[in-house]
Design brief:
The chain is built from 17 helices and two strands. By secondary structure, it is mostly helical. The protein has a single domain, classed as Growth Hormone, Chain: A, CATH 1.20.1250.20. A two-stranded parallel ribbon has the order 1-2. The chain is globular and about 55 Å long. The chain starts with a strand and ends with a helix.
Length: about 425
């Protein structure tokens, strides 16, 4: 068994063996498999399995079940250290992605999607927890912004390779899935072998944690999960179904997204530090309202592929601002609550995700614009909730309502 190293001692290690470097390596590895799967998915299921909006809706509902069950991470933490659990989940994502094209039936695609999704969601749950435990609060917005930029760089590498080689070498779905998943699996194995096990400054609770004072964080997580599903499931599907995008065209669009995020994510980290989580999250929600309404306009007004592509890029960029929700929680949380609350929050985030894609798949057949109007409405609710975030959140000042309640109690005591 590897020696357990406290985070404070790890500062003396060479850069390539420090906890932050491991976070960057993980941030780089995950998008290679996940975005290879995403880039090919819509073309793969339409070309190979003749999916319609109904099947794609069911596929994404199945994909989100492990996210809904992310609270199971708390039980696994009793048996396995978080760091090891996260890397094993990353390995599972890579292996399942590599095998995707070898099971081209509806049932086979659902099964491999479920397995890769378990890896993805359990990895993301643990990764979010480790980021908030290993990174100091003062540096968190900037460092998390750079971690997002590293993920965007990995995605750009994967997509760039696809754009340059897909048509030139007439690549198959099987080969691309095998390479993309294999690279992620190889990095996960390396990280399991090369890094010591790091001990967080505060031992984490290994029990279910659901605190009343975190209610706004829970509500924003729920709305984010419902809203994001509409973007993830139907925005890219629209580009293929309505505008006939081929694999290299969808991939080119993704590349533009990640080039922008490589530049914007660190700047957004600085913006969170300068203006606070409230400002950044309200900016995200207001922008998403406008973008989703414009998506509906693609069907009402007959706007073309250029407008659709611009909206998709802006949409993706706005969703990148959601990391401010992580740092908001870091500021209001008890340190020992971070790991169990990350699991609970991931489950809350995926409550709507389990049923929404399948339900909206049927609505999509009737009226695609109605799907995007619903998304705009959800963004509007998020904006209303975001107004309750204090300028300087902390324990005891989680929401504007809690601040006013504390003030009233103080006045009553004085009287």
């Amino acid at each position: 068994m590897k020696k357990i190293i406290p985070i404070s001692e790890a500062a003396n290690f060479p850069l390539w063996r420090r906890p932050v470097f491991l976070l960057f390596l993980m941030a780089f590895a995950m998008p290679i498999a996940f975005n290879t799967w995403s880039a090919l998915l819509n073309n793969f299921v339409i070309d190979v399995a003749d999916f319609t909006g109904v099947e794609i809706g069911w596929l994404h509902s199945v994909r989100e079940i492990p996210g809904f069950l992310a609270v199971g991470v708390i039980a696994l933490m009793m048996l396995v250290r978080e760091q090891i659990l996260g890397l094993v989940a990353l390995l599972m994502l890579g292996v399942a992605t590599a095998l995707t094209a070898y099971f081209p039936s509806f049932g086979g695609i659902l099964t491999l999607t479920m397995l890769s999704s378990i890896g993805f969601h359990y990895y993301e749950t643990v990764n979010q927890s480790l980021q908030l435990q290993w990174i100091d609060k003062a540096r968190a917005p900037q460092v998390i912004g750079w971690l997002m930029a590293a993920g965007s760089a990995a995605s750009l590498l994967a997509y760039g390779t696809l754009v340059l080689t897909w048509k030139t070498f007439d690549l198959s779905y099987g080969l691309v899935y095998m390479v993309g998943g294999g690279v992620t699996a190889a990095i996960a194995i390396y990280a399991l072998l090369a890094f010591p096990q790091f001990e967080s400054p505060t031992p984490q609770l290994k029990t279910f944690v659901l605190r009343r004072r975190y209610w706004l964080y829970y509500a924003l997580q729920f709305m984010a999960g419902a809203r994001r599903q509409i973007f993830v499931v139907f925005a890219a599907f629209m580009m293929v179904e309505k505008f006939g995008f081929d694999v290299h065209q969808v991939t080119s669009l993704f590349m533009i997204n990640f080039v922008i995020n490589m530049v914007v994510a660190p700047l957004m980290g600085r913006l969170v530090g300068a203006r606070g989580e409230r400002f950044v999250l309200l900016l995200e929600y207001a922008g998403l309202i406008l973008v989703f309404l414009a998506y509906g306009g693609l069907y009402w007004l007959g706007w073309g592929v250029v407008v659709a592509s611009v909206l998709y890029v802006v949409d993706h960029m706005l969703f990148g601002l959601a990391f401010a929700l992580k740092t908001y929680f870091q500021k209001i949380a008890d340190p020992q609550d971070i790991a169990p609350t990350a699991a609970v929050a991931f489950t809350i985030n995926h409550i709507a995700a389990v049923f929404l894609p399948a339900a909206l798949g049927y609505l999509w057949i009737v009226s695609p614009s109605a799907v995007f109007i619903l998304a705009a409405s959800l963004a509007g609710v998020s904006f209303g909730l975001g107004l309750l975030i204090p300028r300087h959140p902390r324990k005891g000042n989680e929401t504007l309502l809690s601040a006013r309640l504390t003030k009233r109690k103080g006045e009553s005591t004085t009287a």
